[in-house]
Amino acid sequence: MDEKYPIISAGEETKEETKKDDRTPRRGHPKFYQLLEEMADLHSRKNANYTVGQDHFSNIRESERFGIPAWKGTLIRMGDKWNRLMSLGNGQPDMVGESMKDTLMDMAVYSLICIILLEEKDKK
Count of domains in the chain? Predict the structure, then answer.
């Protein structure tokens, strides 16, 4: 885990060394921050497989060729993941080797990508 932001338990006092280094401690469940790291790693690996050139979202922007803004294309992908979750949750067997956790992590990554794309759109 990133030592830049130490994790402290609810009610635990901030350690003096954290204050003097001017770092803000993270509160919450340690597993939450572990999953964020896993999500970052997942995004990095998939980004290497799916993007072309310098545009990290070139694969996502492909929807624009069909008249669908990239952020909406991300929502469509999230919809596909939601349908997969519903199938898995209803007991349908996994046929592609993607667990519920994998699907949820993909949705979380798509959520962050959508936020980035919305912010890009709002800057224009």
Answer: 1
